[in-house]
Design goal:
The chain contains seven helices and ten strands. By secondary structure, the chain is of the alpha/beta class. InterPro entries: NAD(P)-bd_dom, NAD(P)-bd_dom_sf.
């Protein structure tokens, strides 16, 4: 399938784009905000399009045109304020869902946050972040799309281990961003993940094994 990666210039996004580029069963299109980012991807032989999550839905839908799936890996980042969290992690995610529907991209994968579905487990320091993720996820669940919501634990820049644990509810633990990308890649056409949300942390199983056991 042809996959649009939203947030392709982010750390998870870059790992996922590489997996998709090297794949023999998927094609990738990277969505970025800046021309220099698009030029960098194109120099590596990767299709890239410009669109802004703070722009209109139609702009994102145009980026998704011709794609079968959309993966939302974008985020406002830890250095921004609550306003950007609302605009990117909530409204940007919801716009992306609406854009996927408009473009006819029936498959949608959302990168959320561990325990975002469980208000009693939200961190007090970043409740606005968890609230944004929670309601973006709920909007996706109420859409017409074949969705999967991946809720990773604490993200690290360690090298991926290729070993994860996935379940509806897990205790908070860390996971390398590279392994999150591997889970997203494995989930794309894994029917056991359709219409499901799950937490994922480092563990003992390959992503393929972990997802089949959901």
């Amino acid at each position: 399938m042809r996959v649009l990666v939203i947030g392709a210039n982010g750390q998870i996004g870059r790992h996922l784009v590489k997996l998709l580029k090297d794949s023999d069963k998927h094609e990738v299109r990277a969505m970025v905000r800046k021309q220099e980012q698009a030029d960098e991807f194109k120099a590596d032989g990767i299709e890239a399009v410009l669109a802004d999550l703070e722009g209109p839905v139609s702009e994102i839908a145009a980026a998704a045109d011709g794609c079968d799936a959309v993966v939302f890996t974008a985020g406002s980042g830890g250095s921004t304020g609550a306003d950007k969290t609302l605009l990117i992690d909530l409204d940007g995610a919801v716009k992306s869902v609406e854009a996927a529907e408009e473009a006819g991209a029936a498959r949608f994968l959302m990168v959320s946050a561990i325990q975002a579905h469980n208000r009693s487990n939200w961190s007090e320091k970043i409740r606005h972040y968890f609230a944004a993720k929670h309601y973006a996820d709920r909007m996706l669940m109420n859409s017409s799309l074949t969705y999967t919501i991946v809720r990773p634990g604490g993200l690290t820049n360690d090298s991926g281990t290729g070993r994860v644990q996935a379940a509806e509810n897990l205790e908070r633990a860390d996971i390398p961003r590279e392994d999150v990308a591997a889970v997203l890649y494995a989930a794309l056409d894994e029917e056991s993940t359709y219409y499901k949300g799950f937490d994922v942390v480092s563990g003992e199983h390959s992503p393929e094994e972990a997802l089949k056991n959901l």
